[in-house]
Amino acid sequence: MNRHLLNYLGWRLLQSLVVITIVVIGSFMLLHLVPGDMVDVLGGQRGDMDAELMATLRTRYGLDQPMLVQLFNYVTGVLQGDLGYSFRNSNTVLSLVLQRLPATILLVVCSVAVAVFIGTLAGVFAARHVHRPIDVIISMVVLVFYATPVFMTGLGLVIIFSVKLKLLPVGGLITPGVDMTTLQLVGDVAQHLILPVLSLSLFYIAIYARLARASMLQVLNQDYIRTAYAKGLGTSHVIIGHALRNALLPVVTMVGLQIAELFGGAVLTETIFSLPGVGRLAYDSVFERDYPLILGVLLVCSFVIILVNLIIDLIYTLLDPRVEVSR
Amino acid sequence: MTPSASAPKGALLDVEGLSILIKDKRGDVRAVDDVSFSVAAGETLAIVGESGAGKSLTALALMRLLPKTLGVEAKRITLAGQDLTSPSELDIRKVRGSVMAMIFQDPLSALNPVLTVERQLVEAIRLHETISRTDARARALELLDMVRIPAASARLGEYPHRLSGGMRQRVMIAMALAGRPKLILADEPTTALDVTISGQILDLLKELQRDLGLGMLFITHDLHVVRSVAHRVAVMYSGRVVESGSVADVFERPRHPYTEGLIQARPHGSFVTDGHRLREIAGTVPVPAARPPGCAFEPRCVRAEADCRQVVPPLVREAGTPRSLACFHPLQQEQYA
């Protein structure tokens, strides 16, 4: 790690801080534009609350304060690591989100890995056989994946592999009520993850396959590829040693851009496969109008996304020496 | 066709009847048409001509590095005693870099941007000899010294974009020398460089060629460059060789009207504006698909007569000289003074 890289890291962290502050304030204000608060929802569900009780509740939870004061209270809390309390779940927001985060991260990371790996492989293969039947077939298959909504892929996979073939579990992350060794646990979780990861990644395989194909074709036309052949290298050496790394650059950029989108896709996938992830938590909290929880989920997710993008940028500077880090 | 400018015995590279075809459904077009030449060990042959004359294609065809849309046909190609008329993929791979190596025009785009100089050099070295990484690194340093890169060991860790244009071309040359080739194909190696650097690179190539006894096929459009590096020259026009011979001979006594035109079109090294326009050759080079049935230069030639329009003049060796000419009505030697 040189000094330049450290400076760059510091600068990027500062930037991230600004982004997170904007996310916090922005989403807080946005949620307060929606008419009705948590007490209204509670009252509506219970049906037996009078105006006095509602007012008391509002006073107790600070909901009667002006918005700016509420914002100030919230931000001070966040700075101290307190994301608020979810009354619907009788737990702190932070522990609720942290409980659910591992499942989502597991799902998203596995899906990205599968999508990038298979997508790039398919794309490079297609580029090597450009305009030949196999290239056309790959293009058509990935187009079908691309055009199919995630929930349909998910339901289709469940029907085939879980219901008909009974090969894989329908949903959940762990088989409940069974004592397992660590190794068995890993295997069990992996089994549960196959279908969710597949249904989420199929869509992205399509994107990466198209991107890798186009990028590879462009790289294969570069002069330095001709130089590599002129040295006497064989085709596979040229592809792996000279073309692939250059062709991967746009793919890496795309991963960074799509991480946020993948978290969105995780909501659907987690719902279909009843995975205990952040996506479902967000989904539920919106319907319960659990403001602190919605905010908490938003905050933690944007934090993760910013962190991932930082890592992607670092990977990019390692892959492409022409990107000189500065500041 | 009469065998032309035929190889001196034991030529390093001997090419006879090389054609490059642009494959097309309506019939193939010959981008390079029946070209023959040879290069002896320790000799530099320059191929000179305008853009689109087929010079670079010829070099790429020898390395079999043409895009798949172009076909290569040849009566005979031999390189260092090996028949390369229609080599297998494996045969040509064994020859690339080790018997003949190529230097390209633009050293920035010809070097891989994401690999260090060391990676690219060591790769070339270890491809052609079984040698440890440490030894390969030492050899890489030696090569950089050979092409006179200062502070060579510091340069090994650099990426191409951190080097100057001249430095990049030196790295390119070092890479070409890595496999200890016998023949260097230099495709306009100084065109992308500025004048002073270009002079240094030419001097370097000349020296390396002489010291290592290399054969060199030097492709350029610059007559001054031909004069400074080459022993012999072949003038190409629209995919054909129209005249060849020793540089001094051809430049002092051009016999083909095109060669004469090229020499006349050259500025005379003076900044004095005496109101004279440089002489130009009227018209443009025909594209290969629209080449006239006779001599390709006929529409632009002041000496053209009826026979030039009907038959392609063959490249014929002049009796008792190392010169060849493809012209029915050449300039007489005494005519040019």
In short:
Chain A is mostly helical. Chain A has twelve helices and two strands; from the N terminus they run ααααββαααααααα.
What distinguishing features does this structure have?
heterodimer; A: mainly alpha; 12 helices; globular; B: 337 residues; disordered N terminus
Give structural notes.
The complex is a heterodimer of chains A (327) and B (337). Chain A has helices at 3-33, 38-46, 51-60, 67-79, 93-128, 133-147, 150-164, 182-220, 223-231, 235-272, 278-287, 291-319; strands at residues 85-86, 91-92. Chain A has 327 residues and is mainly α. In chain A, strand 1 (85-86) and strand 2 form a beta hairpin. Chain A starts with a helix and ends in an 8-residue tail after the last helix. Chain B has helices at 55-63, 89-95, 107-110, 117-128, 133-146, 152-156, 165-177, 195-212, 223-229, 247-252, 257-264, 306-310, and strands at 13-22, 29-39, 44-48, 70-73, 76-79, 82-83, 100-103, 183-187, 215-220, 232-237, 240-246, 316-317, 324-325. In chain B, a hairpin with a 6-residue loop joins strand 12 (316-317) and strand 13. The model of chain B is unreliable at 1-8 (pLDDT under 50). Chain B: Belongs to the ABC transporter superfamily. Chain B: InterPro entries: AAA+_ATPase, ABC_Ni/Peptide_Import, ABC_transporter-like_ATP-bd, ABC_transporter-like_CS, Oligopep_ABC_C, P-loop_NTPase. Chain B: This is ABC transporter ATP-binding protein.
Question: Oligomerization state of this entry?
Answer: heterodimer
Mean pLDDT of chain B: 88
Main beta-sheet strand count, sense and barrel state of chain B: 8 strands, mixed
Give a count of the beta strands of chain B, DSSP E runs of length 2 or more: 13
Indicate the structural class of chain B.
alpha/beta
Family (chain A): Belongs to the binding-protein-dependent transport system permease family.
Pfam family, one (chain A): BPD_transp_1
InterPro entries (chain A): BPD_transp_1_N, MetI-like, MetI-like_sf
Protein name (chain A): ABC transporter permease
